[in-house]
Amino acid sequence: MIYTANDLLKLILDTHAVSIWNRDKGPVFWYTANVPGPFYVNTEMVIGKELSERMLAGITAIVEKESGPEGRATALTKLILDAYGQSEAWQSLIATMIDCARKEFAPGSYAMISGGERRDWLFSIPFAHEAGLPHLFLFKNGSTYCAQPFAAGQSVLHVSDLINNAVSFFDLWEPALRKEKLSCAGNACVTVRGEAGIGRLREAGQKVANLITIDTGFFRSLEAAGLVSHGTVEEMEIFFKSSQDWASAYLIDKPELFDVEHCDEKKSFARLRAFIAQDPWGMRPRHEAFFAEMQKAIDARSARKA
Questions:
Q1: Environment class of residue 67 by beta-carbon count within 10 Å: exposed (0-12), middle (13-18) or buried (19+)?
Q2: What is the residue extent of each domain of the chain?
Q3: Which residues on adjacent β-strands are paired with residue 159?
Q4: For position 194, what pLDDT does the model report?
Q5: Which of 14, 170, 228, 236 has the highest local Cβ count within 10 Å?
Q6: Which uninterrupted H or E stretch holds 210?
């Protein structure tokens, strides 16, 4: 089964692969740049929350246990394909990705599939399996492994979960491909978030085949399908034009939406603390009382945890 556009929209919301915050109750989402936002993308959850968590835990255990690339690749392939074979939704997603790639890339334009540690493998391994092509494992330590022999000069399609800023591709995966004397025909992924990463790839001559782009058009499509309100679309339009304007309209001067007392320590609280201390959007001069109140709440929580 190949998913329709509306099937994909519903799947992404139902599985919380894209989560939208509650602007009346919070809490806000935190991004790796230590700035807040109104939605969060966990693409791997498109195969199901419990299944994705089990797969990622299994992947981590294998990478930690198996020291050699061959042992890692063998165990990873078995883990993922065994679970993949029992999930019709996962199979439909991969069929849709392959169909999308066939429309974007000419026949024979790539001879292998590559995927990078860790989340890429949830999609690259079954993609390669269904396409009948060798899979090249790209590890964060710079090593690579393919169970089948390949020749220098062959072209690869890199398959991933998400293209955001394309940092991993340019910093890790493309150098690994160059080391093996392989070229990259392009990228195939489930979701693209914003324009930064896809723009960078296209400037480098890379084609991109993706199922969903998380932008204002995505949220308008959700509204048209009856999945979100018009108010949500208006909010997202503001956010994509200016994250600072979004924060001023929906977040700043509303300390309750930050949930200082209960947000998780490792990510949300650390990012909140950095946001208030560093003021990356230059908002403190216009909201001095709010920043002071937030800093006081952060200090109080930190003192209790000490």
A1: exposed
A2: 5-41+218-305, 45-214
A3: 188
A4: 83
A5: 236
A6: strand 207-214
**pTM for this one?**
0.92
CB 115 within 8 A of CB 123: yes
Backbone angles phi, psi at 138, to 5 degrees: -115, 115
How far apart CA 3 and CA 92 sit, in angstroms, is 7
DSSP assignment of 112-167? EEEEETTTTHHHHHHHHHHHT--EEEE-TTS-EEESS---TT-EEEEEEEEESS-H
Q: What is the pLDDT of residues 16-64, one digit of tens each?
A: 999 999 999 999 999 989 999 999 999 999 999 999 999 999 999 999 9
Cα(11)–Cα(17) distance, integer angstroms:
8
Asked if residue 304 has a cis previous peptide bond (ω within 30° of 0), the answer is no
87 closest CA partner among 124, 113, 122, 137: 122
Beta-carbon contacts of 295 under 8 Å, excluding residues fewer than 6 positions away, are 276, 277
- Helix, coil or strand: residue 85: coil
Is the distance from CB of 169 to CB of 196 less than 8 angstroms? Answer: no
User: In CATH, which of 2.40.70.10, 3.40.50.2020, 3.40.50.150, 3.40.50.720 is domain 45-214?
Assistant: 3.40.50.2020
- Stated as kind and residue range, the H or E segment containing 74 is helix 69-84
- The helix (H) or strand (E) run that includes residue 81 is helix 69-84
